[in-house]
């Protein structure tokens, strides 16, 4: 069995993030996990049906967004220190 596709992996959720232009503006804070669905759907659209797309939201952070995306394979590493 072969795998021909793209595998994405995360380092978990690091909390609030800002672009360089928005540092210090609390209302502009973003969570990386909130971008998973749109990012993965764009990747899958560009890969097409010829290639698989798998993704690992470490600690299940953002798993809801990934599950609602067009990934072919979803799994999550769970570590003892992971929490909601």
Automatic annotation (TrEMBL):
One Pfam assignment: Glyco_hydro_66
InterPro entries: Glyco_hydro_66
Alphabetized UniProt keyword annotations: Signal
Protein name (Swiss-Prot/TrEMBL): CAZy families GH66 protein
Keyword Signal: yes
């Amino acid at each position: 069995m072969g795998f021909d596709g793209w595998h994405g992996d995360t380092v978990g959720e690091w909390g609030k993030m800002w672009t360089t232009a928005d540092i210090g503006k609390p209302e502009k804070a973003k969570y990386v996990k909130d971008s998973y669905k749109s990012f993965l759907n764009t990747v899958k659209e560009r890969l097409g049906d010829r290639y698989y797309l798998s993704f690992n939201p470490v600690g299940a952070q953002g798993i809801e967004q990934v599950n609602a995306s067009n990934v072919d394979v979803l799994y999550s590493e769970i570590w003892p220190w992971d929490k909601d």
